[in-house]
Every structure is written in structure tokens, then in C-alpha cells.
Amino acid sequence: MFNDVEVDADTRRQLELLKGGLTIPPPANREKAARLAQIGSELSSMYGSGQYCREDGTCLSLVEVSAQMATSRDADLLLVYWEGWREVAVPMKPLYVEQVGLGNEGAQSLGFSNVSELWRGKYDMPADEFPKELDRLWSQVEPFYESLHCHVRAKLGEHYGEDTVPQDQPIPAHLLGNMWAQTWGNIYDVVKPEQEMQVPDVTAALKAQGYDELAMVKQAESFFSSLGFEQLPETFWERSMFQKPEGRDVQCHASAWNLDDQEDLRIKMCIQKTGEEFNVIHHELGHNYYQRAYKDQPLLYRGSANDGFHEAIGDTIALSITPKYLKQIGLIDEIPDASNDIGMLMQVALDKIAFIPFGLMVDQWRWKVMSGEVAPEDYNKLWWELREKYQGVQAPVDRDDDAFDPGAKYHVPANVPYTRYFLAHILQFQFHKALCDIAGDEGPLNRCSIYGSEEAGTALNKMLEMGMSEPWQNAMTTLTGSPDMDASTIAAYFAPLKTWLDEQNKDRMCGW
Ligand code: X8Z
Ligand code: ZN
User: Which atom of ligand 1 is nearest to the CA of 355?
Assistant: First the structure.
């Protein structure tokens, strides 16, 4: 109704945000809307209460099987957990199909062709331009990803044998230290350089220093405080969930909330005492500080410049968890010298670079599903085609006809768009560089920590405060001086590792 009404630009922006604000808009029909709501909560709770149960009746939660995926080096056992967890998704499929239909009806009632168009239309550019922008960014990272992939596959081949890890094929998805093969940092021990390298083991350091869940969150808060951000309110500490409660199901997938759009900030997590989770805590607090920074914007502008920005803030801070910083806070005693940088860069790349194609493929799948380009009987097949194409990863065993592997990843049953994480992995390096420049750090980017820099904090806050009141390109310019997303900072950050990888790979056959 309001599409053609003449209004000023600011009102138009707010109207567009209102129209595009929902993730899965309900159809106008009340029964159908109620059904959509019911499906959403059923899918979400199937995931949250999901378990892998052995034949003897004992069951493991996702937190428990994930810990096994991270640490076990027994390929048979890894396969058992990998297949076992995917059983939770089988009954999701009919509900998911129904949800796609209802969501599209809702999207159409708002004037979109389908949910795919709605999702692609949230980036201050035409919906059909956005995928091209993603292709451009991916092509900047792809050569580096392929070098990393090549080395990792070779090392996995040495460890597990080339029958298990054929050197001319995608890597079997159960061997990469993560349930979805989305981050590979947990298999650093398998793929690390042969030359001995000192790389801080944050998990071990947290343990040695007796950190519990609360201490980990307090430590993360103090990083933000050092940048000049106000401390979290008392209610944050009273109302957050840091540990999995006994005797009831909770959604353990980490999230951050502002319950009253003012000061009622909280996180909800089942914190594991690992370096990986220490990063996730910073990630979640990034959401909370962003939410607080834009709280005085008009209602429709209380959000991040684009959804990738929300996901990038805490990760940007976590890029400053360098050896120098770990020493400052007493988690390690000695800063490894520059001869260890390849090891440290490898550790970061295994998490951050390995993630990028995964961050891209999830919504490449969903866009095709939502637009009807792929029929339900081909959902799983398309999932694995995209996994192979982008990640160079394959299912370790043939998948059953009733498998619904996308459903085994939180964001699919929970309907959280995923391209935001792809963007965040590009953005966080741009933000890190901009903040390091502002903090006056002239060393290499991987050794820069903005800890204690109020100048950096002020510059960051200036962007956060804008919320979504202006196109994201303006927010980007406010912090970085340029309106573009650009992966060349990633190349600069990892340049020495790229050279090292290419040397390692020179007699290897790469690609899949
Ligand atoms: O879901 C998350 C956050 C909550 S917004 C913990 N992440 C993605 C994932 O776990 O798959 C962070 C990185 C990617
Ligand atoms: Zn997040």
C-alpha cells in the first residue's frame, strides 16, 4: 500500500526496513500464520533437544559430540558421531518443506517473489546484485582457501591414509575437527608445520589459571572496558545463562539479547572452557555492545548496518587476542618470537579462512530452496553439491534418501540467515586493520592488539551508534574510510602463510 506514496528519503528507508524486517513473514491467513509459528518452534526445539543415542541407550548432547569431534583422531569413531548427530534432522524435513511454502506465501503478500528475494534484498543494493558482490569477495579469497585446503588434505592423508583421504577428491567431512567442517582449528596438531612452533594453547592456559565460565566472561568484558565501553549492567550477570542447567533442555547454541531495547543485555551459552569458546564469548558480547550503542536510534534503525556487521564486531575484538594480549592478562608467560608466526597464522587461518566457503554455501542452498529452484526430493543432493563446490568437502558415506543434513546445522531449523557470517569474516579483517591504524600499531596485523586503545574504542563506537540509520556503505566509510567490502586485507594478514603454503604444496596435486 505504501510502495508508491511520496515520502522523504528517511521515511522511505524506514518503510523499507519495516517491509523487509521479518525473516519468514507469515501469510495473512490466521490459521496459516499460526501453523508457521508452530513449525518454527517445533523445528527449533527438535534441534535444541536433539541427541545422539547409542544402541545401548546412552545418549550424548551436541555439546558432548562436538567435544568428541574436536579431539578424537579415530576416523571410525568420528564417523559414528558424524552420522549419529545427523539423525536429529531426518524428521525435520516435512516441517521444513511446509515452512518454505508458508514463508513464501507471506513474502508474496509483502510484494516479494519469495523468501529468497526478501533475504537478498537487505543490503542497500538490488537483490540480484548482492550475489554478484558475494562472488566477487569469494573470488578474492578462493586462491588462498585452495592452498590451505591442499595442505590440510595432504596432512590428513598422511595421518589417516590415502584410502580414507583420497588426494584427488574433496576431504571427507568428519575429519576436520568440527561437526560441520566449518572451522578446522581443532586439528592444528595434525596439520601444523613440521618445524617446531610455539603457538599459545588458550584452552590449556585457561585451565592452568583456573578460569571458570564466569571468569571467562569477565575477562572478555574487560577487553571492551579497556576500549572505553561502559561496563555491562548488574542485570547482565544476574540474568544471563553461562552454563547448561541440570534437568531441562535449553537451546545451547550461543546467542545475545537485548530484552528491552535499552539496558537489559544478556547472553545465553553453554560455555565450554576452551580457547574456541573464549572467542565465542567475545563474539556474543560484540552483539550486546552493538545493541547498547544503537539503543537511542528510532525503533526501525535499531540494528546493525547490515547483518554481517553485527556478526563481525565481537570477532574483530577477538582478533586482538594476540600473544602480547595473553601475556598482558597473565594467560601466558612468554610472547613467541616472529619465527613462530607461521604456526600462529595457520591456527587463525584454520578457523577463519576455512569458514569462508561454508559461510557462503549455506544460503546458496537456502536461496535455491526458498525460490523453488530445487525440489524437496533434491534438497540433500544440492546441499552436498554446494559443500563440494565451495568447501571441497564431501560426505564420508553415501547419504540415505531421507537424510536432511542441512537440518543438523542450527541456523537451518532456527531460520537464521547465514550469509551474515560470510560477510563478517571479510569485514572483521577490515575493521581490525582500521582499528589497528587508529590505535597506532605499526607492526604486522596478526600481532596487533587494540587492547587499551580508547581511540580505537571511540572510532568503533561511532560506527556502532549509527545502527542502521544509513546505508551500510556509510557506516563502513565511517570506520574504514572506504565504502566497500574488500578481502584484500585478508590477503595482507595471511601473506606469509600463503607463501609458506605454496612452498609446501609445490609437488602436491591441489584442487578437487
Ligand atoms: O552462530 C554463531 C554465533 C551466534 S550468532 C555463535 N556463529 C556461526 C555458527 O556458529 O555457525 C558464529 C560463527 C558462525
Ligand atoms: Zn553472532
Answer: 14
- Determine contact, residues 345/338, Cβ cutoff 8 Å: no
Supply 310's cell numbers.
553485527
User: What does residue 430 show for φ and ψ, rounded to 5 degrees?
Assistant: -65, -45
Which neighbouring-strand residues pair with 268? 241, 255
SS3 annotation, 152-166: HHHHHHHHHCCCCCC
Bridge partner residues of 172 (DSSP): 394
Name the closest-CA residue to atom 3, ligand 1: 254
If you search the block for the grid coordinates 568440527, which residue do you land on? 178
Q: Which ligand has the minimum distance to the alpha carbon of residue 309? A: 2
Residue nearest to atom 2 of ligand 1 (CA): 254
For ligand 1, the distance from its centroid to the CA atom of residue 506, given in whole angstroms, is: 35
Q: 16 C-alpha vs ligand 1 centroid, how far in Å?
A: 27
Q: What amino acid positions are annotated as catalytic residues?
A: 253-254, 283-284, 287, 311, 411, 421
Extract the C-alpha cell encoding 439.
590505535
Amino acid (1-letter code) at residue 179: M
- Nearest ligand to the C-alpha of residue 268? 1
CB contact at 8 A, 177 and 75? no
- Measured CA to CA in angstroms, residue 373 lies from 14, 116, 364, 403 at distances of 31, 10, 11, 19
Per-residue confidence at 385, pLDDT binned at 50, 70, 90? very high
Q: How confident is the model at residue 1 (pLDDT cuts 50, 70, 90)?
A: confident
- Helices 472-480 and 419-439, packing angle to 10 deg: 30
d(CA 219, CA 216): 5
Please give the average per-residue pLDDT across 406-422, as a whole number: 98
Q: Which three cell numbers stand for residue 342?
A: 607461521
**32 CA distance to ligand 1 middle (Å):** 30
Q: How far apart are CA 180 and CA 171, in angstroms?
A: 12
pLDDT of residue 197: 97
Residues 442 and 314: beta-carbon distance below 8 Å: no
The ligand minimizing its distance to the Cα of 281 is 1
In the reported structure, the alpha carbon of residue 60 is separated from the centroid of ligand 2 by a whole-number distance in angstroms of 25
Nearest C-alpha neighbor of 167 from the set 184, 148, 154: 154
What's the CA gap between 142 and 148, in Å, rounded?
A: 10
pLDDT digits (tens, 9 = 90+) for 436-459: 999 999 999 999 999 999 999 999
Total residue count of the chain as it appears in this document? 512
- Cβ < 6 Å from ligand 1: which residues? 254-255, 280, 283, 421
Q: Which residues pair with 171 in a beta bridge?
A: 393
Question: In this structure, is the dihedral angle defined by the CA atoms of residues 440, 442, 446 and 449, taken in order, positive or negative?
Answer: negative
